[in-house]
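User: I'm putting together notes for a lab meeting next week and I want to include a structural view of one of the chains we've been expressing. I don't have a solved structure, so I'd like a prediction I can at least talk through. The sequence is below, exactly as it appears in our construct file.
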Amino acid sequence: MTAQPIRRHEPERVPRNARGIADALTPEAAKEFYAELLAAQPEEAKGVLLRWWGRATLESDAGRRRRVEDALAGTMPTIAVQDMLDRRRAAGLPVE
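Assistant: Thanks for the context. Below is the predicted structure for the 96-residue chain, given as C-alpha cells.
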C-alpha cells in the first residue's frame, strides 16, 4: 500500500530544487544542507535533495507547531484503522 497526499499544495510550498529548499530552511540549516549537497557524490545528490526537501516542507508548515504540541499533550485527533479503511473504500480508493 502506498501513501497518497490528501491534498496537494498548488504550487508546492517548497520548490524541489536547491534554492527552494535552502530558502525554506533556517540560515543554519541551509548551510548544513549546502555543505551536504556539495560533499555528495553525483549519484547521492538526488537523495540529499529529497531528504532535505522533506525537512524543508515540514519546517515550513504553518500548523506544525500546533500539531507537535497536540501530539505531545495527547490531544491530537485520531482515527481507528478500520474507520480509515472504510472511508477509503467508500471513496473508491485502494486499501491494499
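A couple of points you could mention at the meeting. The chain has two domains: 1-61, 64-96. The chain has five helices and no strands.

User: Perfect, that's what I needed.
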